[in-house]
Structures are given as C-alpha cells and as structure tokens.
Automatic annotation (TrEMBL):
One of its GO terms (molecular function) is methylmalonate-semialdehyde dehydrogenase (acylating, NAD) activity. Pfam families: Aldedh. GO terms for biological process: L-valine catabolic process; thymine catabolic process. CDD domains: ALDH_F6_MMSDH. This is methylmalonate-semialdehyde dehydrogenase (CoA acylating).
Length: 520
C-alpha cells in the first residue's frame, strides 16, 4: 500500500533523513513552488543501497501532472525572462548561500539514497555549488557584441532565453548534475523542468526547496519524477525547447535522436571507459595512490572513474603494490567513520558487475583482487562489491569493451607509449584519460594525440571547474560533442542568438529611386 502521504501533502519543506528513516514518505512532485503529492498508480521503490531498506517511493508522475508542470513553467516564463538580470543574479546569490548552509543536509540525503560516503557526497554538492557560484557572474558573462558596420549603421548580437528547458539526470551525482543545469538555465532567463534519477531524487528535492527560499518565482524550477515514460513525455512535448541529458549510452543515444528529430536542442553526456597510462619514469607513489583513489572512489560509479589501467613497459611489476593499496580501502556504509567506498546502487547493478568479473575470468583474464562476496558486518544486506583488480586483460574481452561502473580496475600491458595511445584511441568511448609521467615531452605527445575530452597529466580525474566546460569525445558525448555542459558552451546552449542591424541616418534621404542590387 502507499506510504504515509499526510506529511508530504502538507509539508512546506523536504523531510530530514531522520524523519524519512523513521517513517518513509512518498516523494512528491515540486510544481509552482509546492510539494504536490503524486496521484501516480505506478511507483518505484527506492532502497538504501547499504541496507536495502525502503527509503521512499518515487512516483511515475501521471500524464496530467507532467502537463501541469509544463503549463506552470510556460506561465512563469514571460515574467521571468523580463526580470532584470541583476534581480536574477540576486536570487542566485541567495541560492548559493542556501546550498552552502544546507551542505551537510544535501550530502546526507545523497549518502542515504545513493550510497556514496558522506565525505564524497559533500564533494558531489560542492562541484555543483561551484557551477552555481560561477553563474553568479552572469551579468558580465552574457554581454553581447556590437560593431558599427557602416556609417550610421550598427550590428549587435545578443542572447535570449529559449523558454522552457528540461534536464534528465543520472543517479551517480544527485546534486552536481542537476546543478550543471539549474543555475545556468535560470540565470539566462529560462524555466527548468528537472527530472532527477528515479533512484535518488532527494537531493534535487532539497535543491527545489532551497530555490523557493532563495526567491525563484513559482514555475521557474519544477521537479517531476518517473522513468522512461516521463522522458518520452519530455521528448515529445513541443513547449520544451531544449534537453540536457547525462547518463548512459542506451538512454542517451535514444534521447538525442528523438529529441533532435523533434526539433529540440539536446546536450548529452554519455558513458565512459577512462584509461590511465602509467610510464616507468612517473612518480610511482603518487601514481599508484591516484589510480587506486580514482578507480575505487564512489565505488567506481563516476563517469570519470579511472577504470582501465594501461601499464607501459615494466610498470606491470607494480601490480602487487597496487593491489596492496586497494586492499586497504575500507568498504562500509557511507555514514560510517573511515569508510572509503560504499555500496553500489542496486542489487541488479551488483549482479551486473559480478557477471562482468566472471566473464573476464572465463575469457582468460586473472582476478588479482576479488571483491565479490564481501559484506561489512553491520550491513549484511547491502549491495557490496569490494575493490577488484583484473589483470592480463586484452581489448577483445567483454570487461574491456563494456562500461563496468563499479569498483573494478582492469589492467592491460603495453610495451610503449605509442601502443598506449593507440589503445585509448581505438576504444569507442572518449570521456577522459590520464597519463602519469615525469617527462614533459611524453605528456605533450599524449595530450596532442589522444582522442578524449578531458586529459589529466599526473591528475587522475581531471573534471574541469565551471569556468571551463565538461568536454567529451567519440561515444561519450552525443552529437559529436557540439553542446557541452557549463562554461561558455553551457551559456550558449541555454540561449538563442539574435542579431540586429540598424540604420539611423543623420540626414534625410535625397534619392527618389529604390535600390535593387545588393550593396557593393
Ligand atoms: P541511465 O542512462 O540509466 O539513466 C539516466 C537517466 O535516463 C535517468 O533519469 C533515467 O530515468 C533515464 N532513462 C534510463 N533509461 C531510459 C530509457 N530506456 N528511456 C528513457 N529514459 C531512460 O544512467 P545512470 O545509470 O543513472 O547513470 C550512469 C551512467 O551515466 C554511466 O553510463 C555514466 O558514465 C554516465 N554518466 C556520464 C557523465 C558524463 O558527463 N559523461 C556523468 C555522469 C554519469
């Protein structure tokens, strides 16, 4: 039967973790600045990945609710677009301060629903907050261009909002990725419909509450829920002009194709298989620590996780030391003191990861460190996979070809830097890659020749700060990477360019004949 909705229907704020654990409540939609309980007939049960206890039910919002959300955003748009940019900036200042003040609360919601450690969840919030903070400079970021192109004639080019835009988010960064969209889309004058991941919408709900407190008018930010049905509604609703998607390739390629066919702008960041090339001349301790942290942190559920180690030349001799460091990581509930990584998102995900490990074994690889079957004492029912290292991997193996998205590091040996570069470039994904070396010229070769979006030189997870853009290449980004997230391309994505050419003659015209040729 349904969970208690009495609190949800009257609540003015989103419940705390404590309230939610003692008495789970259904997740509501957020429309017109109100938490509105859904009349859904289909619900998605959301379990704490560390215990598999029910935390909430997320509605498959009804068709009518989805229409109401779009109507609310459409109604809000004319006044919001004409709200002065300084007034929008003031609201953003408040929003930023509120996110910082609610940092722990947001992080706790992420740990409860998504499973990552509390310390790591704080990083999830911070990376999103930094996008919002950077967007506070919108008053100088959005200036246009002007040129006097002839006597008394000038052309000016400036940017206007699109209208209603939508964001479809993945489960792995419940705060950061909604915040790749909300601040930039709204600061530029759009109204946003956000569809968080149905697996962990809590952080987005808190952000919605904070946006209201910051002063965003009703309808500027609405949150609706659901899975594929809600996505199809967004794809086909003519009032929605643009879609921001972050997630896997299956959903993302479909969304890009159908959204584009419907005439919408689509930005879509997809899956990954990020390689780290380790050269014998590198700072060994630094490299080994960086790789272990980036392979297993967040249980490998980061799109920039370093999941593939390319050991150049004799660096393969370092494998035992690598395994020693991985073994030392503490796998535990995300709220536990000293936990290094938490559970994976779902039992299905655990099974998928375990099956991929088994496939590697079957296809001839070696399981150097086996994290299957691990269980922390206090959490026997969670979705646990401890750090796993697979060696003697070759590019034909399933574990190399598929994104594992779990705490599994696969290792390949190559003799030279050229082989390492060829391996990365032959992989169909192109999100990120890292190189560990002390040689400037080696790093420079790698940087020039490699076909990925983000490159780290002695940096394991080179996610760009918000003054830059999150870039991608090959299958890791739909549409060839034309519309990347945040930074200047982010501002451009959420705005339409307008170009005005005007003539203001200082004297009256004296000719009485019309000109019919193009001016030369
Ligand atoms: P996912 O693709 O399963 O889900 C993402 C969103 O798409 C969700 O909101 C979900 O409801 C929706 N969706 C899922 N299946 C759908 C379908 N068949 N039709 C329509 N909509 C559908 O991704 P996830 O498991 O939540 O996230 C993990 C994936 O996201 C990984 O592949 C990871 O690499 C990727 N990711 C990429 C980046 C990046 O910037 N490149 C960042 C984070 C995550």
């Amino acid at each position: 039967g349904p969970l208690a909705t009495a609190t949800a229907s009257t609540a003015t704020s989103y419940p705390t973790n404590h309230e939610r654990i003692s008495s789970p409540v259904d997740t509501a939609n957020f429309i017109d600045n109100q938490f509105i309980p859904s009349r859904a007939t289909t619900w998605i049960n959301l379990h704490d990945p560390a215990t598999n206890n029910l935390v909430t039910r997320v509605p498959q919002s009804t068709e009518e609710e989805l229409h109401v959300a779009v109507a609310s955003a459409q109604k809000a748009f004319p006044a919001w677009r004409t709200t002065s940019i300084i007034a929008r900036q003031q609201i953003l200042f408040k929003f930023v301060n509120l996110i910082r003040a609610n940092w722990d609360r947001l992080a706790a919601s992420i740990t409860l629903e998504q499973g990552k450690t509390f310390a790591d969840a704080k990083g999830d919030v911070l990376r999103g907050l930094q996008v919002a903070e950077t967007t506070c400079g919108i008053t100088t970021q959005l200036t246009g261009e002007i040129l006097e192109v002839a006597k008394d004639m000038e052309t000016r080019s400036y940017r206007e909002p699109l209208g209603v835009v939508a964001a479809i988010c993945p489960f792995n960064f419940p705060a950061m990725i909604p915040l790749w969209s909300i601040p930039i889309a709204t600061a530029t004058g759009n109204c946003v419909i956000l569809k968080p991941s149905e697996r962990d919408p809590g952080a987005a709900m808190i952000l919605a509450e904070l946006s209201r407190e910051a002063g965003f008018p009703p309808g500027v930010i609405n949150v609706i829920h659901g899975a594929a049905k809600t996505v199809d509604f967004i794809l086909d609703e003519p009032a929605i002009k643009a879609i921001s998607f972050v997630g896997g390739n299956r959903a993302g390629e479909y969304i890009f194709t159908r959204g584009s066919a419907n005439g919408k702008r689509v930005q879509a960041n997809l899956g990954a298989k990020n390689h780290a090339a380790v050269l014998p001349d590198c700072n060994k301790n630094h490299a080994l620590n960086a790789i272990v942290g980036a392979a297993f942190g967040a249980a490998g559920q980061r799109c920039m996780a370093l999941s593939t180690l390319v050991m150049v030349d004799r660096t393969k001799e370092w494998l035992p030391e690598l395994a020693e460091r991985a073994k030392k990581l503490n796998v535990n509930g995300g709220f536990e003191e000293g936990a290094d990584l938490g559970p994976v998102i779902s039992p299905q995900s655990r099974k998928r990861i375990e099956d991929l490990i088994a496939s590697a074994e079957k296809e001839g690889a070696t399981i150097l460190l086996d994290g299957r079957g691990y269980k922390p004492e206090k959490y026997p029912n969670g979705n646990w996979v401890a750090p796993t290292i697979i060696t003697n991997v070759t590019p034909e193996m399933t574990c190399y070809k598929e994104e594992i998205f779990g705490p599994v590091l696969i290792c390949l040996n190559v003799p030279t830097l050229d082989d390492a570069i060829a391996l990365v470039n032959n992989n169909e994904y192109g999100n990120g890659a890292a190189i560990f070396t002390r040689s400037g010229s080696t790093a420079s070769r790698f940087q020039k020749d490699i076909e990925v979006g983000q490159i780290g030189i002695n940096i394991p997870i080179p996610v760009p700060l918000p003054m830059f853009s999150f870039t991608g290449n090959k299958k890791s980004v739909a549409g060839g990477g034309a519309n990347t997230f945040y930074g200047k391309p982010g501002l451009q994505f959420y705005t339409q360019q307008k170009t005005v050419t005007s003539l203001w003659r200082s004297e009256d015209a004296t000719h009485s004949r019309a000109g019919v040729v193009m001016p030369t």
